[in-house]
């Protein structure tokens, strides 16, 4: 992908109004929506022919209104590993997040309503196309806030908890540093401390780090 | 009767006729006393009848005696002649109702030829017949006896004379007693001695009989109580049918009992079978190929009790003969004034006792109530489960409409608003910020809609299953939760939803009322049952009567055929245990991401 050309996007959602809304938002924000689909069959045909940089997919689509979008995402990832994928859902579930994240980087799993916070949504989309793996903050919050009897998270300081949540959302060390107003070096120290305290492995890639943290949070 | 004065006169007139008469009276008294003691001790009628036969034999010096019941029955189906010795009676000519005698007690070595239960028609030339006809003792001997209907047996036993005396119980001809001797003949006056004894023994027989009726009543009551308890426990109708059939066999059968239901389309279904069986006996399956003159067809046609005395006389009765049945009685079961079905009992021996129909009709009348209750309860359970399922389905639809419709539209609207906001010229900053606030408020509404739809039906339950849904519930709980779920794959939707609501309500209760510091949730499936236990360490004292939430849970779990129990002692925490049946093939297809 050259920097001069706008990243090409395909969109899949059975709600035409919302789809058009997202399309026009992306078009105005430096992306080029090259095709729209109302179900996963159309989406797959479109993705195979257009080989876009990004696919934005509604998880619930006809005919079953189940998790068709998730299945389509898996197929696209297998056939077109270069294509970034964002799955949008009316509600977020940790199983679906982990399922998706397991297939690699350049992935996003977000609440549909995130698109209404336009600036942040566009920023997230750009991070994902650039290689990040992003999980909706509301899901991470639910996981981090869950109260446990003899909680393993009790060994973390409040700041470390904050860093852990941002790690789970898919922020890079630089991204975390920006969010909590500290230097990247400080973030690195926090991350090392967290991994040691929770006995988590060092991960070479960000999406593996996200997955490891999610798994830990879900299982505790 | 007054006590005989045996002591009077001392030994002086030992052999005078008066003395002999006195001794006879004393013997008779002693015999009666023994029989009466037996009755008072709760002996079964069969024992009493045998004792009477015994005492009579000793009293009059007979080698053999019989106590027989007399009954009047219409000519029986399928049995031109009762089994027994061949008859000299000409066929046809039977306008009179047939009288039968059934041996109920005997004395002497006669059991092989004339066993207890031996039943035969009364015919001319029989002492019994003469006694019944004349209502007095009747004696037959010599040629008349040897050439009579029992000539063969008489010859075999070496009987040369017989006396029969009617037995009158409470003013009715109850039966007849027969005494036989191999001597030339009985002494003169034996008739009156026999009559004297039997007149007094009749009281014992009547008492034994009344006692037996009472015992049978108590027995029937006990059987019905057992059935009622099965129904109250919520056992499925099949279990109740099988139990009722077992009771029928215990009370009336002599080999087999069956329950058959008549279906509205004219077919019949075998609901339960106890005892003998064969390839045509398939419980729960259509009951087919029954003979057109057999019990099933005749009860259906007439709505009355029917008997078959010998399946050899029934065209198409071979399957029953092959399974070892000879005779049977079927009585209708009427439920709500409609012929619902039939209970039949069968025997591998001769005809069933003559009062079987009457006794069974009383029994089936009461069984019908039990059956109707079981059926009603099953119908009620099904409709409850249907109502719960329909309500769940409605909630699921509302949740979907909110997610896919309302919320989606809100998101579209906000997005559009954001576009408009972006298009506002730089000079109209206030308009832009107003639009922004509007969008934020709408976003708040969208969040609310998501929360509401989650409360209506947790989408995660449909998409990811009970395990994931319970873990998610645990994460959202204000009180720390230890979730331990051992469930493979998916369960039927109604079971998942039911279990979910139990946990959800208990977590709410733990946070709001119980002041608990931790809640444990354990769920496990094994052997077709989901076992769910939720317990907290709070203050206890939860009252299911007051807490409508807990009452609702109990109703829901019971509607699914499950068991719900609450244990919440003051200061001892609150624990709920549920057991839910999980049909083997009732699971939903696994969405594939429930680990």
What does this structure look like?
The complex is a heterodimer of chains A (220) and B (595). Chain A is of the alpha/beta class and 220 residues long. Chain A has 10 helices and 6 strands. Chain A has helices at 16-28, 40-50, 68-79, 94-101, 118-129, 137-145, 158-169, 173-180, 184-198, 206-219; strands spanning 8-12, 32-37, 54-58, 84-89, 107-111, 133-135. Chain A has a 6-stranded parallel sheet with strand order 2-1-3-4-5-6, sandwiched between helices. In chain A, helix 7 (158-169) packs across helix 9, helix 7 (158-169) crosses helix 10 and helix 8 (173-180) crosses helix 9 (184-198). The model of chain A has no long low-confidence stretch (mean pLDDT 91). By secondary structure, chain B is α+β, with helices and mostly antiparallel strands. Chain B has 3 domains: 17-85 and 94-215, GAF domain (Beta-Lactamase); 221-376, Beta-Lactamase (2-Layer Sandwich); 462-595, Histidine kinase-like ATPase, C-terminal domain (Heat Shock Protein 90, 2-Layer Sandwich). Helix content of chain B is 46%, strand content 20%. Chain B has 15 helices and 16 strands. Chain B has helices spanning 17-40, 45-60, 127-134, 142-146, 151-157, 190-232, 237-251, 295-302, 318-322, 356-423, 429-456, 459-464, 466-476, 493-512, 548-559, and strands at residues 64-73, 98-107, 119-121, 138-141, 161-169, 172-181, 255-262, 268-275, 306-308, 327-335, 338-347, 481-486, 519-526, 529-536, 563-567, 575-581. In chain B, a hairpin with a 5-residue loop joins strand 7 (255-262) and strand 8 (268-275). In chain B, helix 1 (17-40) packs parallel to helix 6 (190-232) and helix 2 packs antiparallel against helix 6 (190-232). In chain B, 40% of the residues are buried. Mean pLDDT of chain B is 83; it is low at 1-13, 74-95 and 591-595. At the A-B interface, helix 1, helix 4 and helix 6 of A face helix 10, helix 11, helix 12 and helix 13 of B.
């Amino acid at each position: 992908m050259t920097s001069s050309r706008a990243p090409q996007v395909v969109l899949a959602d059975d709600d035409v109004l919302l789809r058009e809304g997202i399309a026009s938002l992306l078009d105005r924000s430096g992306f080029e929506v090259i095709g729209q689909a109302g179900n996963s069959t159309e989406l797959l045909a479109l993705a195979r022919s257009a080989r876009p940089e990004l696919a934005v997919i509604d998880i619930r689509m006809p005919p079953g209104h189940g998790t068709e979008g998730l299945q389509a995402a898996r197929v696209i990832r297998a056939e077109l590993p270069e294509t970034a994928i964002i799955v949008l859902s009316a509600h977020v579930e940790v199983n679906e997040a982990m399922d998706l994240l397991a297939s690699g980087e350049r992935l996003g799993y977000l609440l549909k309503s995130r698109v209404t916070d336009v600036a942040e949504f566009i920023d997230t989309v750009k991070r994902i196309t650039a290689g990040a793996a992003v999980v909706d903050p509301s899901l991470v919050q639910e996981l981090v806030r869950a109260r446990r009897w003899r909680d393993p998270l009790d060994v973390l300081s409040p700041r470390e908890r904050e860093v852990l949540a941002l790690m789970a959302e898919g922020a890079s060390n630089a991204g975390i540093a920006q969010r909590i107003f500290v230097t990247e070096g400080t973030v690195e120290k926090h991350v090392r401390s967290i991994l040691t305290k929770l006995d988590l492995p060092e991960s070479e890639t960000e999406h593996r780090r996200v997955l490891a943290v999610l798994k830990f949070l879900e299982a505790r | 009767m007054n006590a005989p004065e045996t002591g009077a006169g001392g030994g002086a007139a030992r052999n005078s006729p008066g003395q002999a008469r006195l001794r006879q009276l004393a013997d008779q008294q002693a015999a009666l006393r023994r029989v009466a003691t037996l009755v008072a001790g709760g002996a079964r009628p069969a024992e009493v009848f045998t004792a009477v036969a015994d005492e009579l034999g000793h009293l009059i010096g007979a080698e053999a005696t019989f106590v027989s019941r007399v009954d009047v029955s219409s000519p029986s189906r399928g049995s031109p002649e009762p089994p027994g010795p061949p008859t000299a009676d000409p066929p046809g000519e039977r306008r009179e109702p047939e009288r039968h005698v059934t041996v109920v007690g005997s004395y002497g070595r006669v059991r092989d030829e004339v066993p207890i239960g031996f039943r035969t028609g009364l015919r001319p030339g029989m002492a019994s017949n003469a006694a019944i006809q004349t209502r007095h003792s009747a004696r037959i001997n010599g040629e008349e006896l040897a050439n009579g209907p029992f000539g063969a047996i008489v010859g075999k036993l070496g009987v040369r004379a017989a006396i029969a005396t009617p037995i009158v119980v409470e003013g009715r001809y109850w039966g007849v007693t027969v005494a036989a001797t191999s001597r030339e003949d009985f002494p003169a006056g034996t008739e009156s001695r026999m009559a004297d004894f039997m007149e007094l023994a009749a009281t014992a027989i009547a008492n034994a009989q009344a006692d037996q009726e009472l015992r049978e009543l108590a027995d029937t009551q006990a059987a019905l109580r057992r059935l009622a308890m099965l129904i109250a426990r919520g056992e499925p109708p099949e279990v109740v049918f099988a139990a009722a059939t077992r009771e029928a066999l215990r009370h009336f059968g002599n080999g087999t009992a069956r329950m058959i239901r008549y279906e509205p389309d004219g077919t019949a279904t075998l609901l339960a079978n106890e005892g003998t069986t064969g390839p045509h006996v398939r419980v729960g399956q259509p009951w087919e190929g029954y003979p057109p003159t057999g019990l099933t067809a005749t009860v259906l046609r007439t709505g009355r009790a029917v008997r078959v005395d010998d399946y050899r006389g029934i065209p198409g009765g071979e399957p029953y003969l092959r399974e070892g049945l000879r005779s049977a009685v079927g009585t209708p079961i009427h439920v709500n004034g409609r012929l619902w079905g039939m209970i039949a009992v069968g025997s591998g021996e001769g005809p069933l006792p003559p009062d079987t129909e009457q006794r069974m009709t009383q029994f089936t009348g009461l069984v019908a109530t039990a059956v109707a209750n079981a059926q009603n309860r099953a119908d009620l359970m099904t409709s409850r489960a249907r109502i719960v399922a329909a309500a769940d389905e409605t909630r699921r639809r509302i949740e979907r409409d909110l997610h896919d419709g309302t919320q989606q539209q809100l998101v579209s609207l906000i997005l559009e608003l954001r576009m408009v906001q972006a298009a506002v010229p730089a000079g109209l900053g206030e308009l832009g910020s107003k639009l922004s606030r509007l969008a934020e408020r709408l976003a708040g509404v969208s969040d609310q809609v998501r929360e509401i739809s989650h409360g209506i039906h947790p989408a995660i339950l449909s998409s990811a299953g009970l395990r994931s849904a319970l873990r998610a519930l645990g994460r959202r709980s204000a009180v720390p939760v230890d979730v331990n779920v051992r469930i493979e794959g998916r369960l039927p939707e109604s079971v998942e939803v039911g279990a979910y609501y139990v946990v959800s309500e208990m977590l709410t209760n733990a946070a709001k009322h119980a002041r608990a510091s931790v809640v444990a949730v354990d769920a496990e499936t094994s052997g077709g049952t989901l076992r769910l236990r939720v317990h907290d360490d709070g203050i206890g004292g939860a009252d299911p009567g007051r807490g409508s939430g807990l009452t609702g849970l109990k109703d829901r779990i019971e509607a699914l055929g499950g068991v719900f129990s609450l244990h919440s002692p003051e200061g001892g925490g609150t624990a709920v245990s549920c057991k839910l049946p999980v049909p083997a093939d009732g699971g939903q297809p696994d969405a594939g991401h429930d680990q």
